[in-house]
Design a protein that fits this description.
Helices cover 38% and strands 20% of the residues. It has two domains: 165 residues, Glycogen Phosphorylase B (Rossmann fold, 3-Layer(aba) Sandwich), CATH 3.40.50.2000; 156 residues, Glycogen Phosphorylase B (Rossmann fold, 3-Layer(aba) Sandwich), CATH 3.40.50. It is elongated and about 65 Å long. The protein is of the alpha/beta class. Strands 3-4-2-1-5-6-7-8 form an eight-stranded mixed beta sheet. Helix 3 packs parallel to helix 4. The chain contains twelve helices and 14 strands.
Length: 329
Protein backbone atom coordinates (compact mmCIF):
# COMPACT_ATOMS: atom_id res chain seq x y z
CA UNK A 1 0.00 0.00 0.00
CA UNK A 2 1.13 3.55 -0.70
CA UNK A 3 0.91 5.86 2.33
CA UNK A 4 1.49 9.53 3.07
CA UNK A 5 2.76 10.06 6.61
CA UNK A 6 2.76 13.50 8.23
CA UNK A 7 5.23 13.61 11.12
CA UNK A 8 6.69 16.30 13.39
CA UNK A 9 9.92 14.37 13.95
CA UNK A 10 12.68 16.33 12.22
CA UNK A 11 15.16 13.51 12.86
CA UNK A 12 13.55 11.60 9.99
CA UNK A 13 15.56 13.95 7.75
CA UNK A 14 18.80 12.64 9.31
CA UNK A 15 19.83 9.53 7.40
CA UNK A 16 21.70 8.11 10.41
CA UNK A 17 19.03 8.67 13.06
CA UNK A 18 17.16 5.76 14.71
CA UNK A 19 13.81 7.15 13.51
CA UNK A 20 15.05 7.28 9.89
CA UNK A 21 16.08 3.65 10.21
CA UNK A 22 12.62 2.86 11.58
CA UNK A 23 11.05 4.53 8.53
CA UNK A 24 13.18 2.26 6.32
CA UNK A 25 11.75 -0.75 8.14
CA UNK A 26 8.21 0.54 7.57
CA UNK A 27 9.12 0.79 3.88
CA UNK A 28 9.59 -2.96 3.73
CA UNK A 29 5.82 -3.35 4.06
CA UNK A 30 4.47 -0.18 2.44
CA UNK A 31 5.63 2.46 -0.03
CA UNK A 32 5.97 5.45 2.25
CA UNK A 33 6.04 9.20 1.54
CA UNK A 34 6.88 11.17 4.70
CA UNK A 35 6.13 14.87 5.00
CA UNK A 36 7.76 16.87 7.82
CA UNK A 37 7.19 20.57 8.68
CA UNK A 38 10.65 22.16 8.88
CA UNK A 39 12.15 25.59 8.16
CA UNK A 40 14.28 24.47 5.21
CA UNK A 41 12.75 22.75 2.21
CA UNK A 42 14.32 19.34 1.65
CA UNK A 43 13.82 16.07 -0.14
CA UNK A 44 15.71 12.84 0.37
CA UNK A 45 15.39 9.12 -0.26
CA UNK A 46 15.82 6.78 2.71
CA UNK A 47 15.31 3.71 0.54
CA UNK A 48 13.67 2.67 -2.71
CA UNK A 49 10.29 2.67 -0.89
CA UNK A 50 10.70 5.62 1.50
CA UNK A 51 10.83 9.25 0.35
CA UNK A 52 11.01 12.15 2.83
CA UNK A 53 10.02 15.77 2.17
CA UNK A 54 10.61 18.86 4.34
CA UNK A 55 8.09 21.66 3.78
CA UNK A 56 10.25 24.76 4.34
CA UNK A 57 8.91 28.09 5.64
CA UNK A 58 7.89 29.56 9.00
CA UNK A 59 5.27 27.93 11.22
CA UNK A 60 2.33 29.19 9.17
CA UNK A 61 4.12 28.43 5.92
CA UNK A 62 4.92 24.92 7.14
CA UNK A 63 1.26 24.19 7.83
CA UNK A 64 0.14 25.30 4.37
CA UNK A 65 3.16 23.50 2.95
CA UNK A 66 1.87 20.25 4.45
CA UNK A 67 -1.40 20.73 2.60
CA UNK A 68 0.09 21.96 -0.69
CA UNK A 69 2.91 19.41 -0.89
CA UNK A 70 0.73 16.66 0.54
CA UNK A 71 -1.85 17.21 -2.17
CA UNK A 72 0.82 17.06 -4.89
CA UNK A 73 2.45 13.92 -3.46
CA UNK A 74 -0.92 12.16 -3.17
CA UNK A 75 -1.98 13.00 -6.72
CA UNK A 76 1.37 12.23 -8.33
CA UNK A 77 1.68 8.87 -6.60
CA UNK A 78 -2.00 7.83 -6.47
CA UNK A 79 -2.03 7.55 -2.66
CA UNK A 80 -5.29 6.68 -0.93
CA UNK A 81 -4.16 6.54 2.71
CA UNK A 82 -2.89 9.28 5.05
CA UNK A 83 -1.48 8.67 8.54
CA UNK A 84 -0.74 11.56 10.91
CA UNK A 85 1.30 11.72 14.12
CA UNK A 86 -1.34 13.34 16.33
CA UNK A 87 -4.89 14.75 16.25
CA UNK A 88 -3.64 18.35 16.49
CA UNK A 89 -1.32 20.19 14.04
CA UNK A 90 -0.69 17.18 11.79
CA UNK A 91 -4.24 15.93 12.33
CA UNK A 92 -5.78 19.15 11.03
CA UNK A 93 -3.55 19.07 7.94
CA UNK A 94 -4.45 15.42 7.40
CA UNK A 95 -8.17 16.09 7.72
CA UNK A 96 -8.00 18.94 5.17
CA UNK A 97 -6.14 16.63 2.78
CA UNK A 98 -8.69 13.87 3.39
CA UNK A 99 -11.51 16.24 2.39
CA UNK A 100 -9.55 17.56 -0.59
CA UNK A 101 -8.33 14.34 -2.19
CA UNK A 102 -10.86 11.85 -0.74
CA UNK A 103 -8.22 9.69 0.97
CA UNK A 104 -8.65 7.64 4.15
CA UNK A 105 -7.25 9.23 7.31
CA UNK A 106 -5.53 7.39 10.17
CA UNK A 107 -4.77 9.40 13.32
CA UNK A 108 -2.08 8.18 15.72
CA UNK A 109 -2.40 8.85 19.46
CA UNK A 110 0.81 8.40 21.42
CA UNK A 111 -0.45 10.43 24.38
CA UNK A 112 -3.42 10.01 26.72
CA UNK A 113 -5.26 13.28 26.16
CA UNK A 114 -8.81 12.35 27.17
CA UNK A 115 -8.88 10.15 30.26
CA UNK A 116 -8.48 13.19 32.53
CA UNK A 117 -8.98 16.97 32.42
CA UNK A 118 -5.23 17.71 32.50
CA UNK A 119 -4.97 18.93 28.90
CA UNK A 120 -8.22 20.86 29.12
CA UNK A 121 -7.07 22.78 32.21
CA UNK A 122 -3.31 23.26 31.66
CA UNK A 123 -3.12 26.43 29.58
CA UNK A 124 -4.74 27.90 26.49
CA UNK A 125 -2.63 25.91 24.01
CA UNK A 126 -3.55 22.54 25.52
CA UNK A 127 -7.18 23.72 25.88
CA UNK A 128 -7.34 24.53 22.16
CA UNK A 129 -5.64 21.25 21.22
CA UNK A 130 -7.97 19.29 23.50
CA UNK A 131 -11.05 20.32 21.51
CA UNK A 132 -9.30 20.32 18.12
CA UNK A 133 -8.23 16.74 18.84
CA UNK A 134 -11.82 15.71 19.57
CA UNK A 135 -12.94 17.27 16.29
CA UNK A 136 -10.27 15.40 14.29
CA UNK A 137 -10.70 12.08 16.11
CA UNK A 138 -14.41 11.95 15.30
CA UNK A 139 -13.67 12.53 11.61
CA UNK A 140 -10.81 10.04 11.22
CA UNK A 141 -11.40 6.72 9.49
CA UNK A 142 -9.16 4.86 11.95
CA UNK A 143 -7.24 5.55 15.16
CA UNK A 144 -3.92 3.93 16.06
CA UNK A 145 -3.04 3.98 19.76
CA UNK A 146 -0.06 2.68 21.74
CA UNK A 147 -1.88 1.36 24.79
CA UNK A 148 -5.10 0.09 26.32
CA UNK A 149 -5.66 3.19 28.47
CA UNK A 150 -5.89 5.42 25.39
CA UNK A 151 -8.31 3.02 23.72
CA UNK A 152 -10.44 2.98 26.86
CA UNK A 153 -10.62 6.79 26.95
CA UNK A 154 -11.65 6.90 23.27
CA UNK A 155 -14.38 4.33 23.84
CA UNK A 156 -15.73 6.48 26.68
CA UNK A 157 -15.84 9.40 24.22
CA UNK A 158 -18.15 7.32 22.03
CA UNK A 159 -15.61 6.31 19.38
CA UNK A 160 -16.53 2.99 17.77
CA UNK A 161 -14.40 0.05 18.85
CA UNK A 162 -13.79 -1.06 15.25
CA UNK A 163 -12.13 2.29 14.45
CA UNK A 164 -9.43 1.77 17.11
CA UNK A 165 -6.47 -0.55 16.91
CA UNK A 166 -3.54 -0.91 19.28
CA UNK A 167 0.06 -0.94 18.15
CA UNK A 168 2.11 -1.03 21.35
CA UNK A 169 5.79 -0.14 21.62
CA UNK A 170 7.48 -3.52 21.55
CA UNK A 171 9.59 -4.52 24.55
CA UNK A 172 11.95 -7.47 24.21
CA UNK A 173 12.13 -8.42 27.89
CA UNK A 174 14.53 -11.30 27.34
CA UNK A 175 16.97 -9.13 25.40
CA UNK A 176 16.78 -6.31 27.97
CA UNK A 177 17.37 -8.72 30.85
CA UNK A 178 20.51 -10.11 29.19
CA UNK A 179 21.89 -6.70 28.20
CA UNK A 180 25.21 -6.09 30.02
CA UNK A 181 25.57 -3.25 32.53
CA UNK A 182 27.84 -0.57 31.07
CA UNK A 183 27.21 2.15 33.65
CA UNK A 184 26.73 1.21 37.31
CA UNK A 185 25.11 4.09 39.19
CA UNK A 186 26.01 2.56 42.54
CA UNK A 187 29.67 2.91 41.52
CA UNK A 188 29.18 6.32 39.93
CA UNK A 189 27.38 7.76 42.97
CA UNK A 190 29.18 6.18 45.91
CA UNK A 191 28.02 6.57 49.50
CA UNK A 192 24.25 6.74 49.10
CA UNK A 193 22.00 4.25 50.89
CA UNK A 194 19.45 4.16 48.05
CA UNK A 195 19.28 5.64 44.55
CA UNK A 196 15.96 6.62 42.92
CA UNK A 197 15.61 7.41 39.22
CA UNK A 198 13.41 9.63 37.03
CA UNK A 199 13.89 9.00 33.33
CA UNK A 200 12.27 10.96 30.50
CA UNK A 201 11.28 14.35 29.13
CA UNK A 202 11.54 17.27 31.54
CA UNK A 203 8.13 18.80 30.84
CA UNK A 204 5.39 20.06 33.16
CA UNK A 205 3.19 17.01 32.49
CA UNK A 206 5.88 14.84 34.13
CA UNK A 207 5.12 16.57 37.47
CA UNK A 208 8.77 16.63 38.55
CA UNK A 209 8.49 19.83 40.60
CA UNK A 210 5.95 18.00 42.76
CA UNK A 211 8.22 14.97 43.01
CA UNK A 212 11.20 17.09 44.10
CA UNK A 213 9.05 18.48 46.90
CA UNK A 214 8.07 14.92 47.88
CA UNK A 215 11.67 13.75 47.88
CA UNK A 216 12.72 16.77 49.97
CA UNK A 217 10.25 15.65 52.64
CA UNK A 218 11.52 12.06 52.53
CA UNK A 219 15.10 13.30 52.98
CA UNK A 220 14.22 14.63 56.43
CA UNK A 221 14.13 11.01 57.61
CA UNK A 222 16.40 9.49 54.94
CA UNK A 223 19.20 12.06 54.49
CA UNK A 224 21.43 9.65 52.58
CA UNK A 225 19.05 8.98 49.67
CA UNK A 226 19.72 10.17 46.09
CA UNK A 227 17.25 11.13 43.37
CA UNK A 228 18.74 11.15 39.87
CA UNK A 229 16.73 13.00 37.20
CA UNK A 230 17.81 12.04 33.67
CA UNK A 231 16.50 13.80 30.58
CA UNK A 232 16.06 17.02 28.65
CA UNK A 233 13.16 19.41 28.25
CA UNK A 234 11.75 22.90 28.76
CA UNK A 235 11.48 22.49 32.56
CA UNK A 236 15.17 21.68 33.10
CA UNK A 237 16.31 25.15 34.25
CA UNK A 238 13.25 25.57 36.47
CA UNK A 239 13.85 22.22 38.16
CA UNK A 240 17.54 23.02 38.67
CA UNK A 241 16.57 26.28 40.41
CA UNK A 242 14.10 24.44 42.64
CA UNK A 243 16.80 21.96 43.69
CA UNK A 244 19.19 24.84 44.40
CA UNK A 245 16.57 26.81 46.35
CA UNK A 246 15.92 23.73 48.53
CA UNK A 247 19.68 23.29 49.04
CA UNK A 248 19.45 19.71 47.83
CA UNK A 249 22.28 19.58 45.28
CA UNK A 250 23.86 16.69 47.22
CA UNK A 251 20.68 14.57 47.19
CA UNK A 252 19.01 15.46 43.89
CA UNK A 253 21.18 15.44 40.79
CA UNK A 254 20.39 15.97 37.10
CA UNK A 255 21.95 14.33 34.06
CA UNK A 256 21.40 14.71 30.33
CA UNK A 257 19.57 11.91 28.54
CA UNK A 258 21.47 8.63 28.41
CA UNK A 259 21.73 6.27 25.47
CA UNK A 260 21.92 3.39 27.95
CA UNK A 261 18.76 3.67 30.10
CA UNK A 262 18.78 -0.09 30.76
CA UNK A 263 22.06 0.10 32.71
CA UNK A 264 20.52 2.88 34.80
CA UNK A 265 17.38 0.85 35.49
CA UNK A 266 19.44 -2.19 36.47
CA UNK A 267 21.58 -0.32 38.99
CA UNK A 268 19.10 1.86 40.90
CA UNK A 269 16.76 0.90 43.72
CA UNK A 270 13.53 2.27 42.26
CA UNK A 271 12.08 4.16 39.27
CA UNK A 272 9.77 7.06 40.21
CA UNK A 273 7.07 7.92 37.66
CA UNK A 274 4.86 10.80 38.80
CA UNK A 275 3.37 11.94 35.46
CA UNK A 276 0.01 13.71 35.46
CA UNK A 277 -0.86 12.13 32.10
CA UNK A 278 0.85 9.48 29.99
CA UNK A 279 -0.03 7.64 26.83
CA UNK A 280 2.16 4.64 27.53
CA UNK A 281 5.25 4.74 29.74
CA UNK A 282 8.21 3.09 28.02
CA UNK A 283 10.55 3.53 30.99
CA UNK A 284 8.04 1.74 33.22
CA UNK A 285 7.81 -1.18 30.80
CA UNK A 286 11.61 -1.38 30.58
CA UNK A 287 11.94 -1.20 34.37
CA UNK A 288 9.50 -4.08 34.82
CA UNK A 289 11.34 -6.09 32.16
CA UNK A 290 14.66 -5.84 34.05
CA UNK A 291 13.21 -6.24 37.55
CA UNK A 292 13.56 -2.63 38.74
CA UNK A 293 10.90 -1.63 41.32
CA UNK A 294 8.50 1.12 40.19
CA UNK A 295 6.46 3.70 42.07
CA UNK A 296 3.99 5.34 39.68
CA UNK A 297 0.81 7.35 39.38
CA UNK A 298 -2.28 5.75 37.82
CA UNK A 299 -1.41 6.77 34.25
CA UNK A 300 -0.30 5.14 31.00
CA UNK A 301 0.42 1.44 31.32
CA UNK A 302 -0.35 1.50 35.06
CA UNK A 303 -3.26 -0.83 35.81
CA UNK A 304 -3.41 -1.90 32.16
CA UNK A 305 -0.27 -3.43 30.62
CA UNK A 306 1.44 -3.23 34.04
CA UNK A 307 -0.42 -4.43 37.13
CA UNK A 308 0.28 -3.41 40.72
CA UNK A 309 2.23 -6.00 42.66
CA UNK A 310 5.31 -6.60 44.78
CA UNK A 311 7.59 -4.53 42.53
CA UNK A 312 5.06 -2.09 41.06
CA UNK A 313 3.20 0.31 43.34
CA UNK A 314 0.47 2.45 41.77
CA UNK A 315 0.09 5.36 44.17
CA UNK A 316 -2.33 8.31 44.02
CA UNK A 317 -0.65 11.72 43.87
CA UNK A 318 -0.83 12.36 47.61
CA UNK A 319 2.50 13.60 48.97
CA UNK A 320 2.26 11.73 52.25
CA UNK A 321 1.67 8.41 50.47
CA UNK A 322 4.67 8.90 48.18
CA UNK A 323 6.92 9.96 51.06
CA UNK A 324 5.86 6.85 52.96
CA UNK A 325 6.62 4.56 49.99
CA UNK A 326 10.01 6.17 49.29
CA UNK A 327 10.99 5.80 52.94
CA UNK A 328 9.99 2.11 52.82
CA UNK A 329 12.78 1.22 50.36
Amino acid sequence: MKKLMISLDKKILDLNSPVAKRMKNYGQEDELFVLVPVAQKKQLSLSANVQVFGTGGNKIGQFFGLIRQGKNIIKQNFIGFITVQDPFFTGLAGWILKKTVKARLEVQLHGDFYSSDYYKTSGWKNYFQYYLGKFIIRRADSLRVVGLRIKDSLLKMGVLDQKIFIQPIKIDARNLSSQPIKINLKEKYIGYDKIFLCLGRLESVKNLNWLIDVFAQALKSRPNYLLLIVGQGSERAKLARQIEDFGLEKNIKMEDWTNDPISYLKTVDCLLFSSLSEGYGLSVMEAVAVGCPVFMNDVGVGGYEVKAGEKVKIIPLVKEKWVEQIMSI
